[in-house]
Fold this sequence. Notes:
Blueprint: H1 5-8, H2 13-25, H3 31-38, H4 42-53, H5 75-86, H6 91-100, H7 107-116, H8 148-151, E1 155-158, H9 167-170, H10 175-182, H11 192-204, H12 220-225, H13 234-242, H14 246-262, E2 270-279, E3 289-292, E4 297-309, E5 315-322, H15 330-341, E6 348-350, H16 358-366, E7 370-374, H17 379-386, E8 392-393, E9 407-413, E10 422-428, E11 436-440, H18 447-455, H19 458-469, H20 484-502, H21 513-521, E12 525-530, E13 533-538, H22 544-548, E14 566-571
Parallel strand pairs: 2-6, 6-7, 13-14
Antiparallel strand pairs: 1-12, 2-4, 3-4, 4-5, 7-11, 8-9, 9-10, 10-11, 12-13
Amino acid sequence: MRDSSFFTHPQYDWQRRYEVLRASLVERIPDRILADRFGYSAGYLRLLRHQFRHGKIDFSEPVPEKSTTRRKVSAEVRRKIVDWRKHRLSAGDIAELLSEEGIELSVRTVERVLAEEGIPKLPRRTRLKLGRTVKGAIVPERSKMVTLNEINGQHMESSGAGVFLFAPFLAQWPWDDIVHSAGLPQSKVISAKSYLLSFLALKLLGNERYAHVGDHSFDPGLGLFAGLNSLPKCTALSTYSYSLDTHHLARLQKAFVKESNKLGLYDGNVINLDMHTIPHYGDQSELEEHWAGARNKRMKGALTLFGQDAESKLILFTAADILSHEADDQILEFLSFWKGVHKGVKPTVVFDSKFTTYAHLSRLTLQKVKFITLRRRGKRLIEQAENISDWKRITVPHTKRKYPNPLIHESFVALRNYEGLLRQVIMKGTGREKPSFVITNDFDMPVELIVSNYSRRWRVENGIAEAVKFFNLNALSSPILVKVHFDVLTTMIADTLYYRLSQKLRGFEHCDAPKIYRNFVRGKGNIRVRDGHIEITYPRRAHNPILRNVPWHQLPNSLPGLEKASLSLNFK
Length: 572
């Protein structure tokens, strides 16, 4: 005779799940009590609740208590099931094929027949291994170059269609010449230019890490941007980046900066220089420890140099994997690079006090290169500044400067290991507790301009901060999947493209890359290829009127990744 034990100690699995869910969701009994009562773990109880709330457990038709009669399967149907399994079809696929022939068998019945025939189950396969993504899109077997004839007539939707906004600006650079002069390697199926554009497409989207390239692997639009059917996989990108040596990267940087200089992107009169440590969180014994200012500690990482044009705020020079004993010489390496790019113009370089040594400052003076930097101050130097009485108040012409009228005192000083005298400007009233000691070898520049040029050195720090925040410069992590210097170079190119786009957006000329991405680049678009012409249509968005006002007709209407393909951008 049945009593309350039928409910408190259920015999069947489906009833146990029902009773434990009812007790948990209706009676609100704690998990630890239910786990002891029904023999489940607390983690499994949480899983049951999750499955029930998402409709993965159905109690509308409970499993019958008595055994049911099995469906009889004829010998002919068995033969079909076995033959189809030889083609490595799953039980679900076989059940669908039988249904098309008018034979209705459940997947469980097909699995039972295969087991009775002694055929083991197929190993579990993801939808990716089956050749389809989660959304059902066809997955290409491998990344390869495409031609206009192959994709003619295709219509595709891309979640990263915003990268095509950069195509007219990208076409202003002769990428074939840049890639050729850099001597970048290529494979039989993917050209060097397509590899470079693949990296650039991910940078323009602010992709967090190259390990996450799978999020965009099946986007046909991003592949088309690089002249491919789809972007290369993470392993291919990583392998390619490490195939580039120092000479490849130096030639690539020089060729790109030369062409950018021809476009008039750099003023070149004042250049800010700064170091940044790209941290590494793995076990890399070959990496040295450097000071990471953002984390206020020394840690393993790749020491990187950035050179920035003070007027346009564009990065125009990078160097990575710098060793500690090489850091002081980087100022000379930069000048050697800039001499080959901007011939006849010697810039004024601005950097902080620990960037190089006083002996190297002498070498700059011998080369007739002007510099502005800080003097390393000590307790004695500060005490001497406190005894100065003849201070002079100046006005620094910066509209947003919080302290536009600092007090200054000028003098000439001799420093150890520096041959000759330097001009020293002591500043106070700048919002800092201690005075600052600016030194320069330029004796003709007005003192207001000296203070102004040095105070704008924070622009390079802001540029590095933006590269870290949006272009994910610090997200190389463990292990470093892409060669550091190549990642820094693509960051420089992407930053330049964002600058070019922002200059055409009315009211957004001075906005940073994250804001341009949020308002204009992020979003889907429809792509249609017809008769050698690629048409991108963007859905209705709040900022589309600004994009429509961009003089696209004055820019190149070609897609650099796909030869001889004309491009048009439409905004609803």
